[in-house]
Automatic annotation (TrEMBL):
Protein name: Aspartyl-phosphate phosphatase Spo0E family protein
Naturally occurring in which organism (per UniProt): Paenibacillus lignilyticus
A Pfam family recorded for this sequence: SpoOE-like
Source species taxonomy: Bacteria, Bacillati, Bacillota, Bacilli, Bacillales
Gene3D superfamilies hit by this protein: Helix-loop-helix DNA-binding domain
């Protein structure tokens, strides 16, 4: 990615900006989502503490990502 062009993330389907911080957050979100899905398969319930904890962590990371994107877009 050069020249400030946007691309689409193959993992999330979201637009990627030329920021390594945004890419890092996208990777963290993807990893947490995979962990949460795997935990659900292992626990066979969304109500397990492990799945709930991962869901909360994922929510926080998504919120962080959205805030970062909003502030990054305002700077552009």
């Amino acid at each position: 990615m050069t020249g400030g062009m946007a691309m689409t993330c193959a993992k999330t389907g979201l637009k990627l900006l030329s920021s390594s911080s945004i890419r890092r957050l996208e990777d963290e979100i993807y990893a947490l989502r995979m962990k949460m899905e795997q935990s659900y398969v292992e626990e066979a319930t969304f109500g397990s503490e492990k799945v709930i904890d991962l869901s909360r962590r994922l929510d926080k990371k998504i919120n962080e990502y959205m805030q970062f994107r909003r502030s990054w877009a305002q700077q552009s």
